[in-house]
Amino acid sequence: MWEQIRANKRNSIFLMMLMAMVLLSLGFVLGMVFGGGKPEAGFIGLMIASGIWLVLTLISFASGDQILLAASRAKLVTHDVHPQLFNIVEEMKIAAALPKMPKIYIINDPAPNAFATGRSPETASVAVTAGLLARLNRDELQGVIAHEISHIIHRDILFVTFAGIMLGSIVLLSQVFLRGMFYSSLGGSRRRYSSGGKSGGQEQIIMLVIAIIVAILAPIMANLLYFALSRRREYLADAGAARLTRYPEGLASALEKISSDPAPQLDTANKVTAPMYIVNPFKKKGQMKLSDLTSTHPPISERVKILRNMTHGASFKDYSNAYSSVTHSKAAIVPTSAMTKEQVALRQAQEKAVKQERKENQTRQIGDIMRKVNQFAFIPCACGLTMKVPPNYKSKNVTCPRCHKNHEIPNNK
Question: I need a labelling partner for 120 at 20 to 30 A (CA). Which of 13, 59, 271, 358 fits?
């Protein structure tokens, strides 16, 4: 496991260094253009680009997880809101030997999805949507949580966050330059490039063309590197989930349900947070294959096939063999050092998890989860009706609309 973590870190650092080279090159070229082609101006641009990235990185490292959770409108919840979720997270925490129980958040959204965040296993958090909790059975939910726990133990979250910050810096510089050139051209600044003589004007025009090309290509190159980093991690997290649960079918079934769910697109997702989710939150309705060259996630159909090809065991080696069989790739997806002779036997599905809930009960459960997260009071009546009282209800008592019995609302002042 530790060898795999080190291999992941090496690969992450390599990709981030490539992104850093793209960022610094962009800053240098833009500095040269705005400085009239002088090398000194190029180095100033390089320093500005480095400064932008450094500031954003420090912010990300200090409170990136909280920013991400706040942007996703995730709410910290207690065991009472969803006991089964807490039990599953605790099971996977023990199986993964995490030093601390991750904090658990729920996002009030009917679209099923989940992500993990945090700088380290000691500060990790897991966030799931209400739609995920309502639609998955226990084995499927365990597969999703194990996937997110694998991201935590592989140290994926911090590196993906930093890579996202770097990508944001590249896009920011590129957009500032391109928009600046657009408004500059509208202001009639072309005369400035011809004022230094024919030769000087030609050199400046050439530099300007080069800068525009770099400003357009740099975000594309950075995106491809970012996607490569994120996509590989999804495969490795799937492998880790299969190993932790010893039941690959649980995650495979969950991925199918999430990707084919008819719920609208996740409202709180954006381009920065999208790579964090277990399934691309920008999926199209009814579309199973959610990934292509410009996606941070591998194709769902491929991930499902790999998991279902793990018929001999649930170890990293079993996943690697299934990956090679499905993708016909000669490159190993799991680091060689992690593929030991470890034997991880498959287990059977849990009897309770096999039973599917009726659709109307699932819809009702989504609403109940959202109400619990929003601190509604659930008051059962002897007649069998459960009253759901909002937190802003002013009265200390509520009357049952069925039997007209009066009930006191606990902790309502």
Answer: 271
Active site residues: 148
* Euclidean distance between CA atoms 239 and 150, whole angstroms: 8
Q: What CA–CA distance (Å, rounded) separates 69 from 159? A: 17
Average pLDDT over residues 38-45: 82
Report the candidate in 257, 283, 263 with the shortest Cα–Cα distance to residue 363.
263
Total H helices, total E strands in the chain: 13, 8
Q: Please state the pTM of the whole predicted model.
A: 0.76
Task: Find out whether 151 and 233 touch, Cβ atoms under 8 Å.
Answer: yes
Instruction: Write the DSSP string, 171-193.
Output: HHHHHHHHHHHHHHHHTTTHHHH
Residue 11: pLDDT over 80: no
Place of tokens 């292509």: 292
* Six token digits for residue 194: 């011809």
Helices (H), ranges, 246-272:
248-260
CA 396 to CA 275: how far, in whole Å? 45
Contact 14, 160 (CB under 8 A): no
